Amino acid sequence: MVTGAYHPKWVQLRTSLGTIEAIAFLVELEHPKYVGTSLNRESKAKRILEAKGKRGSCYEYMKQTVQFLRAEKIDDKNLESLYQEVRKIKSEKSVSLQLDHTNSVG
Question: Which contiguous run of DSSP H or E holds residue 91?
């Protein structure tokens, strides 16, 4: 939001508890920081794992979003696919770090 890549908008959401008001953050598709259409899924996933802001990591934000959507039975195939790619890369990095640590100790 600091860069102007997103702008907040109040929206009405239907949930299992009824209709609620929430703030949605809409991306400015023409903003130079928006790379949604110019990167492949793996590159996006790597950026998500690296990105952090004042309020936390992009990964944690994505994870919470996916968990909420699942709980509400909202199916977002694109987000799910990207989230699975992020988790795969995160897992691979974790295994790689463990192997590096094992090799340096032994």
Answer: helix 77-105
Pairing mode of beta strands 56-57, 52-53: antiparallel
Q: Are 76 and 69 in contact (CB under 8 A)?
A: yes
Contact between 92 and 45 (Cβ < 8 Å): no
The pTM (predicted TM-score) of the whole model is: 0.70
Q: Helix or strand or coil: residue 47?
A: helix
Contact by Cβ (8 Å): 65, 86: no
Which residue type occupies 98?
Q
Helix (H) or strand (E) holding 22: strand 18-27
What region does 18 belong to: left with phi over 0, alpha with psi -120 to 50, or beta?
left
Q: How would you write the pLDDT of the chain (106 residues) with one tens digit per residue?
A: 567 788 899 999 888 889 999 999 898 888 887 877 788 999 999 999 999 988 899 999 999 999 999 998 899 999 999 999 999 999 988 766 555 555 565 5
